[in-house]
UniProtKB/TrEMBL annotation, chains A, B:
A Pfam family per the record: MarR_2
Cited InterPro entries: HTH-type_Bedaq_tolerance, HTH_MarR-typ, WH-like_DNA-bd_sf, WH_DNA-bd_sf
Organism from which the protein derives: Microtetraspora glauca
Official protein name in the record: MarR family transcriptional regulator
Database matches in SUPFAM superfamilies: Winged helix' DNA-binding domain (SSF46785)
HTH marR-type domain boundaries: 10-137
Amino acid sequence: MTTDDTRGLAESLSRELRHLVLLLRRTTAGQPITTQQYSVLGSLEGGGRRMTELAEEHAVQLPTMTVQINRLEEAGLVARAADPADARVRTVELTDEGRTRLYAVRQSRIAYLTRQLSTLTPEERAAIDVALPALAKLGRS
Amino acid sequence: MTTDDTRGLAESLSRELRHLVLLLRRTTAGQPITTQQYSVLGSLEGGGRRMTELAEEHAVQLPTMTVQINRLEEAGLVARAADPADARVRTVELTDEGRTRLYAVRQSRIAYLTRQLSTLTPEERAAIDVALPALAKLGRS
DNA sequence: GGCGAATACTTAGACAGACTAAGTTAGTAT
DNA sequence: ATACTAACTTAGTCTGTCTAAGTATTCGCC
């Protein structure tokens, strides 16, 4: 429709957001880790990160991240290390097992989404493709 | 790019889904009810529903819905009633206060999303507008 | 070079939200 | 009438989130 009715679009988007959350939940249903754990592992893929960074990136408070990292550490998926330049800082990195787990869950998620997307028409898939960069910008202000 | 790379699209979508969840969280941050409570109230807007229906619609188990409705009932936002045709069934409906609260939170959410959307270009908004129906179809199979 | 403030993180305690298992009450079928 | 099924609640456990308070380390500055 390409209208200029920003508020009307906001209403539609508001309605769809819950649906997308349910979709996300389904992508990791039955997986050996939760959606949040998967998400944190993903942040570590590029190398070690500090606790503060992780908390900010995931929009949670530091204590929440402490708890999540504790559990991932107990599960052997991440390891804490010290920052040689600042003894207050703890860095977190993936273990080999954590990396393996991350990739396995990612493949499973992508397979699920691929199946879902393949039920759409090519035009619908193209529409989503075009909209993703715009959706990515939302909420970053 | 309107490619036919469904798997590649699935990967992009997988990456964006978490971002959209954070966006949803922000839409009800600071509100007097949680995202889930808002969502349940929304299901009751069209009239009374039974517990089983609500649980299915929100993709949770019955006991989870029982707890949520308990809290909403304690808060005076919904009321339980009996089904005259089947004494096992409990129906749930909005109270006047619940309806008022639902509308207030909805306005606040939509205002937030409108502000966010207004930071995009008209083309980006148009892209989201076109993609929403396709996103709505995802995961319904 | 030492003292107060700020920073990075953890611990503790609370509560929402989700699950499974088990219990209660009511309808259904034979 | 009895057994089965359906609808819901209760109880117990776990994750995810928060705030408040505690510990350890670094920084600023005199």
